[in-house]
Amino acid sequence: MRPDAPILRFAPSPNGRLHLGHAYSALLNDDLARRMGGLCRLRIEDIDPVRSKPELVEAIVADLAWLGLTYPEPVRHQSRHMESYRATLRRLIDRGLAYPCFCSRGQIRAQAAASADNLHDPDGAPLYPGTCRGLDPAIRAERLASGEPHTWRLDTTAALRCAGHRLSYEAFDGAETRLVVADPARWGDTVIARRDVPTSYHLSVVHDDAEQAITHVVRGQDLEAATDLHVLLQRLLDLPTPRYHHHALILDPGGEKLAKSRGSQSLADLRQAGVTPEAIRARLGFA
Q: Ranges for the Glutamyl/glutaminyl-tRNA synthetase class Ib catalytic domain (predicted)?
C-alpha cells in the first residue's frame, strides 16, 4: 500500500449483536477502501464497562468474517487505552477547557424543564445549563477530593474562543467533496469523560482516529451532527481532521432506524434462518 493511501475504519460497540445497519456500514467502508486503493481498520469501541462484553466482541468478529470481511492486525480495543484517553482529557483540563460536573441526569432534566428556553442538543437530550461551570474553585476542589461522582464537560464557550477562526470539515461523496461549516455550540457543554471512565465516545473517537491515521470517516447519518463537536476537539488537541461521509441509515418496515436496543433482527438471526452472506450483500447493494 502506498504511503499516502486512504485509511478508513469500521468501529462497532460490543453492546449487542450486529444487524443489517452495521453490515451496510462495514461493507461500505470496505468497498470504499478498496476503490480508493486504501485499507479499512477494525476498532472495537468498548469504553462502556457495563454493556461491553467479551462474548459480543467475539460475535462481532464472527459476523464480519461471515460477511467475508477481514481487517489488518492489530485490532484496536478502546478499553485497553484508558491511560491515553486520561492524558488527552488532562490536556483539556490543564488549559481550563473542561470542568467537573456533579449533576445527575435527573437534575439536568429538571433544570431544563424549569428553564423557559428548554433547549436540547442535536441528539434530543436537554442542553446542559452550565450549573457546575461557575463553581467556586475551593468548593470544586473539595468535592473532587471527597470522591464525589462527576463527569467532565467541555467548556464550549472557552473552547470556541481558543479554537479561533471558523471550524469546518470536508464531506465527500464519491469523487465529490464539499466544505461543511461546523457549529459545535449547539451541543452546549457536552460530556467528554463519563463518571466511570476517563473518556467519552466523542473524546476517544477523536483520539483514535488520529492515533490510527484515519483519513476518511464513513459512518451513519445519526452521527453527522457529532462531527461538529469532533472538529472542535481536533482543533483544540492539534489533531488532523479526516474527510467525512455520513451514509443513509437502514430502516425497519416502520421507518425507524435499526437498533440493538429495540431488538432489531441481528445478523446471527438471519444466519440462523438460512440467509447467506451473498444474499445480505445483494440486499444491501454490494453484490
A: 9-282
66 lies in the same domain as 118: no
- pLDDT of the chain, 287 residues: tens digit per residue: 677 899 999 999 999 999 999 999 999 999 999 999 999 999 999 999 999 999 999 999 999 999 999 999 999 999 999 999 999 999 999 999 999 999 999 999 888 777 767 789 999 999 999 999 999 999 999 999 999 999 999 999 999 999 987 999 999 997 799 999 999 999 999 999 999 999 999 999 999 999 999 999 999 999 999 999 999 999 999 999 999 999 999 998 878 888 766 668 999 999 999 999 999 999 999 98
Q: How many domains would you assign to the chain?
A: 2
For residue 26, is it within any domain? yes
Same domain, 71 and 183: no
CB of 225 within 8 A of CB of 123? yes
Q: Which helix (H) or strand (E) holds 233?
A: helix 226-236
C-alpha cell at 64: 464480519
Question: Domain range spanning residue 286?
Answer: 1-80+251-287
76 with 104, same domain: the answer is no
